[in-house]
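Hi R.,

As promised on Friday, here is the backbone we talked about, encoded as C-alpha coordinates. Could you run it through your design pipeline when you get a chance and send me back a sequence?
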Protein backbone atom coordinates (compact mmCIF):
# COMPACT_ATOMS: atom_id res chain seq x y z
CA UNK A 1 0.00 0.00 0.00
CA UNK A 2 1.40 3.41 -0.94
CA UNK A 3 1.72 6.17 1.63
CA UNK A 4 -1.03 8.82 1.76
CA UNK A 5 -0.57 11.97 -0.31
CA UNK A 6 0.75 15.12 1.33
CA UNK A 7 -2.70 16.76 1.21
CA UNK A 8 -4.21 13.80 3.07
CA UNK A 9 -1.41 13.88 5.65
CA UNK A 10 -1.90 17.63 6.15
CA UNK A 11 -5.65 17.15 6.52
CA UNK A 12 -5.03 14.51 9.21
CA UNK A 13 -2.59 16.78 11.05
CA UNK A 14 -5.01 19.72 10.97
CA UNK A 15 -7.84 17.51 12.20
CA UNK A 16 -5.87 16.02 15.08
CA UNK A 17 -4.26 19.30 16.16
CA UNK A 18 -7.66 20.96 16.51
CA UNK A 19 -6.03 24.39 16.38
CA UNK A 20 -4.43 26.57 13.71
CA UNK A 21 -0.93 25.32 12.81
CA UNK A 22 1.91 27.23 11.15
CA UNK A 23 3.36 26.18 7.80
CA UNK A 24 6.69 25.51 9.56
CA UNK A 25 5.05 23.14 12.04
CA UNK A 26 3.14 21.40 9.23
CA UNK A 27 6.41 20.99 7.30
CA UNK A 28 8.12 19.52 10.35
CA UNK A 29 5.25 17.15 11.17
CA UNK A 30 4.83 15.97 7.58
CA UNK A 31 8.60 15.79 7.02
CA UNK A 32 8.63 17.86 3.81
CA UNK A 33 9.81 21.37 2.99
CA UNK A 34 7.70 24.53 3.39
CA UNK A 35 7.21 25.00 -0.36
CA UNK A 36 5.60 21.56 -0.69
CA UNK A 37 3.36 22.26 2.32
CA UNK A 38 2.29 25.62 0.89
CA UNK A 39 1.37 24.01 -2.45
CA UNK A 40 -0.51 21.17 -0.74
CA UNK A 41 -2.39 23.67 1.46
CA UNK A 42 -3.57 25.56 -1.63
CA UNK A 43 -4.84 22.28 -3.11
CA UNK A 44 -6.49 21.24 0.16
CA UNK A 45 -8.13 24.64 0.69
CA UNK A 46 -9.40 24.65 -2.90
CA UNK A 47 -10.72 21.12 -2.53
CA UNK A 48 -12.74 22.05 0.58
CA UNK A 49 -14.01 25.25 -1.05
CA UNK A 50 -15.27 23.38 -4.13
CA UNK A 51 -17.15 20.60 -2.36
CA UNK A 52 -20.23 20.67 -0.23
CA UNK A 53 -18.74 20.02 3.19
CA UNK A 54 -19.41 20.95 6.79
CA UNK A 55 -15.70 21.63 7.20
CA UNK A 56 -13.38 24.26 5.79
CA UNK A 57 -9.69 25.10 5.84
CA UNK A 58 -9.04 28.56 7.29
CA UNK A 59 -5.93 30.73 7.28
CA UNK A 60 -5.61 32.80 10.44
CA UNK A 61 -2.53 35.02 10.21
CA UNK A 62 -0.46 32.36 8.43
CA UNK A 63 -1.71 29.51 10.63
CA UNK A 64 -4.01 26.95 9.06
CA UNK A 65 -6.85 25.09 10.70
CA UNK A 66 -9.67 22.71 9.87
CA UNK A 67 -12.94 23.93 11.32
CA UNK A 68 -16.70 23.71 11.04
CA UNK A 69 -18.11 26.11 8.44
CA UNK A 70 -19.70 29.21 9.89
CA UNK A 71 -23.44 28.88 10.37
CA UNK A 72 -23.28 25.25 11.51
CA UNK A 73 -22.23 25.91 15.11
CA UNK A 74 -25.78 26.04 16.45
CA UNK A 75 -26.69 22.75 14.77
CA UNK A 76 -23.69 20.94 16.22
CA UNK A 77 -24.10 22.53 19.65
CA UNK A 78 -27.57 21.01 19.91
CA UNK A 79 -26.27 17.59 18.82
CA UNK A 80 -23.43 17.31 21.32
CA UNK A 81 -24.44 15.31 24.39
CA UNK A 82 -22.06 17.29 26.59
CA UNK A 83 -20.71 20.78 26.74
CA UNK A 84 -17.19 20.26 25.37
CA UNK A 85 -15.35 22.42 22.89
CA UNK A 86 -14.50 20.98 19.49
CA UNK A 87 -10.82 20.87 20.42
CA UNK A 88 -11.60 19.01 23.67
CA UNK A 89 -13.80 16.57 21.76
CA UNK A 90 -10.95 15.94 19.33
CA UNK A 91 -8.64 15.22 22.25
CA UNK A 92 -11.24 12.83 23.65
CA UNK A 93 -11.56 11.18 20.22
CA UNK A 94 -7.79 10.72 20.11
CA UNK A 95 -7.89 9.03 23.52
CA UNK A 96 -10.79 6.85 22.36
CA UNK A 97 -8.89 5.77 19.24
CA UNK A 98 -5.82 4.83 21.26
CA UNK A 99 -7.83 3.28 24.17
CA UNK A 100 -4.84 3.93 26.46
CA UNK A 101 -2.29 6.67 25.91
CA UNK A 102 0.48 8.37 27.83
CA UNK A 103 -0.33 11.98 28.66
CA UNK A 104 3.03 13.02 27.21
CA UNK A 105 2.18 11.29 23.89
CA UNK A 106 -1.27 12.91 23.85
CA UNK A 107 0.25 16.36 24.36
CA UNK A 108 2.72 15.66 21.57
CA UNK A 109 -0.17 14.74 19.24
CA UNK A 110 -2.61 17.47 20.27
CA UNK A 111 -0.36 20.30 21.46
CA UNK A 112 -0.04 22.00 24.83
CA UNK A 113 -3.77 22.83 24.86
CA UNK A 114 -4.31 19.15 25.64
CA UNK A 115 -3.40 19.87 29.28
CA UNK A 116 -6.55 22.01 29.60
CA UNK A 117 -8.58 19.39 27.71
CA UNK A 118 -7.35 16.68 30.10
CA UNK A 119 -8.36 18.79 33.14
CA UNK A 120 -11.82 19.33 31.66
CA UNK A 121 -12.25 15.66 30.71
CA UNK A 122 -11.14 14.59 34.19
CA UNK A 123 -13.57 17.05 35.81
CA UNK A 124 -16.42 15.66 33.70
CA UNK A 125 -15.26 12.09 34.47
CA UNK A 126 -14.81 11.00 30.84
CA UNK A 127 -11.21 9.89 31.43
CA UNK A 128 -9.06 8.48 34.21
CA UNK A 129 -5.42 9.27 34.78
CA UNK A 130 -2.96 7.01 36.57
CA UNK A 131 0.74 7.65 37.16
CA UNK A 132 3.06 5.50 35.08
CA UNK A 133 4.91 2.90 37.22
CA UNK A 134 8.30 3.48 35.66
CA UNK A 135 8.07 7.02 34.36
CA UNK A 136 6.95 10.55 35.03
CA UNK A 137 3.89 10.69 32.77
CA UNK A 138 0.35 9.46 33.33
CA UNK A 139 -1.65 6.76 31.55
CA UNK A 140 -4.98 8.12 30.31
CA UNK A 141 -7.93 5.79 29.73
CA UNK A 142 -11.65 6.14 29.15
CA UNK A 143 -14.23 5.74 31.91
CA UNK A 144 -17.57 3.98 32.00
CA UNK A 145 -19.21 7.42 31.89
CA UNK A 146 -17.56 7.99 28.50
CA UNK A 147 -18.94 4.69 27.20
CA UNK A 148 -22.44 5.41 28.55
CA UNK A 149 -22.51 9.00 27.27
CA UNK A 150 -21.23 8.26 23.80
CA UNK A 151 -22.86 4.80 23.51
CA UNK A 152 -19.57 3.14 22.74
CA UNK A 153 -18.95 -0.34 24.04
CA UNK A 154 -15.66 -0.91 25.78
CA UNK A 155 -13.19 -3.27 24.12
CA UNK A 156 -14.44 -6.55 25.58
CA UNK A 157 -12.10 -9.51 25.65
CA UNK A 158 -13.26 -12.94 24.53
CA UNK A 159 -13.99 -14.03 28.14
CA UNK A 160 -16.09 -10.93 28.77
CA UNK A 161 -18.06 -11.59 25.57
CA UNK A 162 -18.71 -15.19 26.61
CA UNK A 163 -19.95 -14.03 30.02
CA UNK A 164 -22.19 -11.40 28.40
CA UNK A 165 -23.83 -14.00 26.12
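Update: got your reply. Pasting your designed sequence below so it's all in one thread:
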Amino acid sequence: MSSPSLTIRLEAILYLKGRPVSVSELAELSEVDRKEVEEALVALTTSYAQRESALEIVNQNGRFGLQLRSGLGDLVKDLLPVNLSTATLRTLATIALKKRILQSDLVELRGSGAYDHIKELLAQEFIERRRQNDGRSYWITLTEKFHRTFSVLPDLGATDLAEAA
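One thing I noticed while checking it: Residues 152-165 have pLDDT under 50 and may be disordered.

Thanks again,
M.
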